[in-house]
Write the structure tokens for this entry.
Amino acid sequence: MYDINDSWLSQPPKYTTFRINSLKKFSFCQLEQVLKNQADELNISVLPNYYKLNPDCLILEQWSYNELNLEKTNNDAIVDALCAAAVLRGSHVFAPGVMGLPTNCKLNGKINIYGDLEGNCKRGLKVKYNGKKLYVGYGILKMLRHDLFDKEKSSGMAIQTLMPASKLPVVNETIYEEGVLLLQNLPSIVCGWVVNAKANEFILDMCAAPGNKTTHLAEMSNNQAKIIAIDKTSQKTEKIKQLCIKHEVQCVKIYTADSTKCCSKDSLGVDAGPPFPPNSFDKVLLDAPCSGLGQRPQLNNKITPKMLESYKFVQRKLLSTAVDLLKVGGKLIYSTCTVTVEENEGLVNWALEKYPSLKLIPSHPLMGGPGLPSCGLNDDQRLMVQRFRPEVDILRPTEAIYRDTIGFFIATFTKTANKDK
Ligand SMILES: C[S@@+](CC[C@H](N)C(=O)[O-])C[C@H]1O[C@@H](n2cnc3c(N)ncnc32)[C@H](O)[C@@H]1O
């Protein structure tokens, strides 16, 4: 099922997507100006396409391939695989990601950026790297060796990426006033649309950090939903708090807790914080911890079969608590950013078998493809879930933009009055 050499997984999507904060004012002007500046610097006449998808999603396409006339340089920087993946998605290079840089490089000189695919490059390498490497783009050097390697911890932009090998524009949310835009993968935005948070609904986001989906739910409800966001460490919940402040989100209560243990009959009530009483929430979002194998591009994944096997146990525990906390008639949305059957269709099968009170319902709006065949779901059930993958499935053919995304899965359940075993 999962193959690191799969060209879909080893390449970045051909789009960059941002979520637009509907609580703030957005206009295309700043984006257009940034693209125009880049076009001037690169000597390109045509800007990449950009447009809104629904009111809160911004899509940016690649620079036109044929027009690019890349100036070659002999200087190569080596960056780690994570940093290389970020460059391919349109990021600059930051100091901690740099592994090797020749001694003769000049500040503000042009530099090629290569990703270390096997993780063998020693930090501070001065000479040519002979390990397996991938060209990921070129840019302008903004830090020299002594800034990068002579300090215990270096930070800041080391290379200003001019053009990633993926031809994606180098644009980040800092071009707008704080909190107007958020870089977010398209299926994650769809996941928010599936939750469809409305005023006065009690919504639990069980695995919420860094808060990308929490803030989306708050924004779409115009700060009117009653959202509780949980994650398991205070460093993580601090991130949710900071994102809510940045996005002017005011309808979220944040708690540090283990969500597998956040339901109890002895609870003092929803307002008292976790644990909560059973049947408390109109909607529960379980954006589960997962193997993350749908993230693109996958350049150097070191996940072991043992680690892969472990995720379903925590996912099942979290889902059990989610079922307890959901009101009868409520909506439970389960999502992952991975491609394995066990964590997706397999988890849905397990849940339906274990909890007769659960009923699978369509994950509207259905933008991704159907669930995989021969994985325990019948065709009706396959059509209710969303699996974001490159193949067209005749059961529900999807638009190209929803096929060139990260690998992602969404399933929605409702709770009936049936008794569970
Ligand atoms: C896929 S990430 C969530 C991303 C988040 N929903 C967003 O869109 O920004 C999964 C999160 O689950 C959290 N997590 C894992 N086990 C947990 C548990 N037992 N209780 C609460 N949170 C947990 C992890 O710390 C991680 O932040």
Observations:
- Residues 111 and 146 are 17 Å apart (CA to CA).
